[in-house]
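User: Sequence for MYBx below. Tokens please.
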Amino acid sequence: MDKRRRKQAKTSSCCSEEVSSIEWEFINMSEQEEDLIHRMYKLVGDRWALIAGRIPGRKAEEIERFWIMRHGEVFANRRKELKRCNS
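Assistant: Structure tokens for MYBx:
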């Protein structure tokens, strides 16, 4: 095995950890940003880069994460729990 292959094997094995979506921090969006995301999603679907291009300072990953956290079943249950605890 040459040096390049050994180096690639080392880097690929150490960086394969994924962050669970449950560990994500909630992304705060303004009402205008949320409205635009909803309207754009109706028009273009889950083309996050296209939607992010319409919102200055936002990345496609942020938009997608926001959408999943807002509309995903796992996060819906967490939101209900947080509302009960805060009430």
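The radius of gyration is 18 Å.
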